[in-house]
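step=encode ok
step=design start
structure_in=
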């Protein structure tokens, strides 16, 4: 099984509905804060279920959602069919999008599931689709020295402040026996040192800097903001 097959299948990475709701609310608020203006065209690449997208769309002219998993695309279209500010893209529609048309290109919590060649291909797509004044944000990047304990601590802190600590503790036990854990052990997650990310950005036509704050609850992970060089 690949990561794409995993995300296209039936899975649950949330310990309960409160966890899920707070997670998407936090992500939406953090992404909305990055939108440069209400006239902006924004792409959330590898968006997943993107349940907070209406809050982001309210801050920009158009929000494009793209996920490579066909089942996720179908779910997104059903959820946002009545919101004229949200467009769910197929792979073909993404490729057909006019070059130099986007103000913001978000890739949050997804490059850990790509190998280096796939990430470099993503950088080329972003460089082509962004305006010269646009920005690319790559967030939730796993540092080379990180481990599962860091993720567990971040989750428990989030659960403590969010009021779902006991379900989170039980969820950590369940995760140990889950398909996600097995796949993480078999395939692994791609990790980066900060200088590695910055070097890759530079090689693909960007000037990038690490942000002091990450998108989402896990602040042990990294976020980078890049502009076309």
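sequence_out=
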């Amino acid at each position: 099984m690949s990561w794409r097959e995993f995300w296209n299948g039936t899975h649950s990475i949330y310990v309960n509905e409160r966890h899920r709701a707070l997670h998407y609310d936090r992500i939406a608020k953090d992404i909305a804060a990055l939108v440069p203006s209400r006239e902006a065209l924004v792409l959330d690449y590898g968006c997943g279920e993107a349940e907070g997208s209406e809050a982001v769309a309210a801050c920009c002219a158009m929000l494009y959602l793209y996920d490579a998993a066909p089942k996720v695309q179908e779910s997104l279209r059903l959820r946002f069919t009545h919101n004229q500010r949200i467009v769910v893209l197929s792979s073909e529609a993404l490729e057909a999008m006019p070059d130099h048309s986007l103000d913001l290109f978000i890739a949050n919590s997804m490059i850990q599931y790509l190998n280096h060649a796939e990430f470099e291909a993503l950088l080329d797509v972003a460089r082509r689709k962004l305006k010269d004044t646009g920005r690319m944000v790559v967030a939730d990047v796993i540092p080379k020295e990180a481990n599962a304990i860091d993720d567990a601590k971040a989750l428990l802190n989030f659960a403590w402040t969010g009021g779902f600590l006991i379900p989170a503790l039980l969820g950590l036990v369940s995760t140990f026996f889950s398909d996600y854990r097995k796949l993480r052990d078999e395939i692994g997650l791609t990790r980066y040192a900060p200088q590695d990310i910055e070097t890759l950005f530079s090689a693909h036509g960007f000037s990038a800097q690490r942000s002091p704050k990450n998108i989402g609850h896990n602040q042990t992970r990294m976020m980078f903001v890049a502009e076309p060089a």
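step=design ok
step=annotate ok -> The chain has a mean pLDDT of 91.
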